[in-house]
Amino acid sequence: MKIVPLIPDNAPFTVEQRAWLNGFLAGVLNRGTPAPGSATLEEKQPLLIAFGSQSGNAESLAKRLAREASGRGFAARAAGLDSLQPADLVKDKNVLLITSTWGEGEMPDNAISFWDSLNQNGSSPKLEGVQYSVLALGDMNYGDTFCLAGKNLDKRLAELGANRIVDRVDCDVEFDDLAKKWSSTAFTILSGKKETVAADEPEDACFSKKKPFQATLLSKTNLNTKGSSKDTRHIAFSLAGSGLTYEVGDALGVFVQNCPDVVDSVIASHGFDSQSEVSLPDSGSVPLREALMKHYEVRHLFGKTPKVGLTLAAFIENLRKLQPRLYSIASSLKAHPEEVHLCVAAVRYNKEGIEHKGVASTFLADRLALGETTGLFFHAANHFRLPSDLTKPVIMVGPGTGIAPFRAFLEEREATAAPGKNWLFFGDQKRDTDFLYHDQITEWLKKGTLTRLDTAFSRDQEEKIYVQTRMIEAASELWHWLEQGAHLYVCGDAKLMAKDVEAALHEIIQSAGNKTADEAIAYVAQMKKDKRYARDVY
Questions:
Q1: What is the DSSP letter of 341?
Q2: CATH number of the structural domain spanning residue 72
Q3: Has this prediction a pTM greater than 0.90?
Q4: pLDDT band, very low/low/confident/very high, at 174 (cuts 50, 70, 90)
């Protein structure tokens, strides 16, 4: 059969241009051979960049590297581990895996089912022929559990026969440079070339962690009343002029400064000159006091006996870069245009006679004055989103400052007139002094925006009562909501609360749902896979 050219002879192109275009379009439409020098998707080297992500760092990085890999000529895709099975690695053959570590060295939520599949005796396929490398994200402050999820995945993939093409890289909180070197090495090896050339990317005009927006502090209100042992602040920043937007569920990155008293104490205890010029973590130099105020972590030095004979250069070399802090956003843009709100508990405690302060929380509560500015950026949390179907019921469990994203959720549900039911579990120490956002929550309850409210104030009675207690008490109704397709969200303490809430969830599924322990495990796993169970925990 004769193929009719797609570009006619009288088109304003040269013979060579016309031939190239005809070949290219024929290839796209499966009508012939692609143009010389062009590559179809099948001819490109496949590359899967898989991620296990709890707060969104691994996901954002994986998607960015997938875009870069595509620019280098790979047929690249990014995918969450919750959407993959071990057999998918065999199909893709080339796999770069990025994962964070959650809690006490655990897999992030979206990696649990994949990890379980890798460890089911006899059912996980052998991974011979798979080329892989692992980038592990973590925080060295967690000691022995630092990057443990990445370490375990790396080890297990090798045990199943996969070929490690680049040694695993373990990253502290500042991971950009290591990630760039790791991915560049992997791209080069997988491409089979001595070096690969990245496609030029346009400079990002938006504000980011590397280029934060200087936002003005509009207000900070104490949410606790007289007699409380806590100091919880409602913080509001202006976004006017930034062009920045965010989704409810996202986090706000805040650039902070160390307490001057702590900095002065550290300098004095070491006998250094506060005006001595020192190098900054990235480039440049400033006087020591300014460097310790704005650029280096010093809290771990407060109250400690200085090392004898330590030089200023060695002192600076051993310091970590002061990192911005991430906070769950407590507002909806639909309710507060050009503003972003936080709910922050100021951390202050006495240890061995020394008064300690949380760096970020007391910076916001005490040291950043109204009208002053600090650097902000947004951190997407795609795992922690309201259901796109506005009719779906929503269950929110957020004691203490864990209420933050749920204030945002309820503002959003109200602004969008979402018909789905909303149920909030909130807890703190005492109802009279610690019922955060009491008036707003009560008003939502009256208007019907909030369908049901269950509270747990642990110190209002002799027996301690927590949110998980209230969940178990409401087991039958909670199970009914889950069977109606409700989405369950948990925000707050990871070490105790989140684990206790999950244990309560399993108990509820077994008792009210008449399931076995194994069936409850499977039910929760399916909820996570369907993105109906999400946690924003810290």
A1: E
A2: 3.40.50.360
A3: no
A4: confident
- Closest of 59, 121, 117 to residue 88, by C-alpha: 117
Q: Name the domain count of the chain.
A: 3
Q: Do 375 and 400 have their domain in common?
A: no
Query: Residue 362 and residue 85: Cα distance in Å, rounded?
Result: 45
Q: What are phi and psi of 537, to 5 degrees?
A: -125, 155
- pLDDT per residue over 66-107, tens digit each? 999 999 999 999 999 999 999 999 999 999 999 999 878 899
User: Taking 90 as the threshold, does the pLDDT of residue 41 lie above it?
Assistant: no
Q: Could you tell me if 87 and 118 are in contact, meaning their C-beta atoms sit under 8 angstroms apart?
A: no
CATH number at residue 316: 2.40.30.10
- Looking at the structure, tell me whether residues 244 and 292 fall in a common domain: yes
The boundaries of the domain holding residue 237 are 213-379
| Nearest CA-CA partner of 239 in 272, 206, 268, 269 | 206
Q: How far apart are CA 274 and CA 106, in angstroms?
A: 42
Domain shared by 361 and 221, yes or no: yes
CA–CA distance from 103 to each of 54, 57, 239, 493 (Å)? 10, 15, 33, 10
Residue with tokens 């990025």: 98
339 lies in a domain?
yes
Count other C-beta atoms under 10 Å from residue 472's C-beta: 16
The CA distances from residue 538 to 16, 103, 194, 319, in Å, are 61, 8, 42, 24
- What SS3 state is found at 76? strand
Cα→Cα distances 300→41, 43, 212, 320, Å: 52, 53, 26, 10
Half-sphere exposure of 259 (CA within 13 A, CB side): 20
